[in-house]
């Protein structure tokens, strides 16, 4: 690695900061949307703009932490929203930076919640306490409890091998020919992305609706 950092100045920027929460769209207060968007999306943009002059000067690398959840949402639409937005920001930036010799890479991890603790387990009571009176009139605690159990079970299935994501980040920074996107996920997660990308929206909606109903 020293050969990459010895005399070329500012080489790479990794935008890794991220926070998350879960719940149906109307359950979350506007403050949650603002906070998560500020960290996951605007935080990465602020950092990128600050270091862009140096990255152009030294023909460096910019790495962004996205997620396969940018392609679909299963109870964490607020997080999915920010990752979909950062993907589009990267797509524009990657093309624009080619003329300067700056390469832009996106890391798309699957479920690594056990490695990162980005999404802590939440109790139904915590979710219920944040819901507005209007939402409480539509839903009930039993529904929220079932939702919490479902989502917490997904979190408990997350991979503990966070080194797989780190390896992708290192490759993006040091490879002579880095990939535009590194999808680091289980086969079934990649299959879900494949269905989402290639099949009509109604098919993906049916798949997700079925999964959520269970």
TrEMBL record:
Keywords: Membrane, Transmembrane, Transmembrane helix. The chain crosses the membrane at residues 62-79, 191-212. It comes from the Eukaryota. The keyword Transmembrane applies. Belongs to the short-chain dehydrogenases/reductases (SDR) family. PANTHER family: D-BETA-HYDROXYBUTYRATE DEHYDROGENASE, MITOCHONDRIAL, SHORT-CHAIN DEHYDROGENASE/REDUCTASE FAMILY 9C. This is BDH protein. It comes from Bombycilla garrulus. The lineage of its organism: Eukaryota, Metazoa, Chordata, Craniata, Vertebrata. The gene is Bdh1_0.
């Amino acid at each position: 690695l020293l050969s990459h950092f010895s005399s070329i100045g500012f080489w790479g920027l990794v935008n890794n900061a991220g926070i998350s929460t879960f719940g149906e769209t109307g359950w979350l207060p506007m403050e949650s949307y603002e906070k998560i968007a500020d960290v996951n999306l605007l935080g990465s943009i602020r950092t990128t703009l600050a270091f862009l002059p140096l990255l152009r000067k030294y023909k460096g690398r910019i790495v962004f932490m996205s997620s396969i959840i940018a392609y679909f949402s299963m109870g964490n639409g607020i997080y999915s929203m920010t990752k979909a937005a950062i993907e589009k920001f990267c797509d524009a930036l990657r093309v624009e930076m080619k003329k300067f010799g700056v390469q832009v890479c996106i890391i798309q991890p699957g479920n690594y919640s056990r490695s990162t603790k980005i999404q802590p387990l939440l109790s139904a009571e915590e979710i219920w306490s944040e819901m507005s009176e209007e939402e409480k009139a539509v839903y009930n605690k039993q529904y929220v409890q079932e939702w919490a159990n479902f989502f917490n079970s997904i979190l408990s299935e997350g991979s503990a091998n966070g080194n797989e994501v780190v390896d992708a980040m290192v490759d993006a920074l040091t490879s002579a020919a880095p990939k535009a996107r590194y999808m680091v996920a289980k086969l079934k997660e990649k299959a879900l992305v494949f269905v989402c990308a290639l099949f009509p929206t109604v098919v993906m909606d049916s798949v997700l609706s079925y999964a959520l109903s269970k």
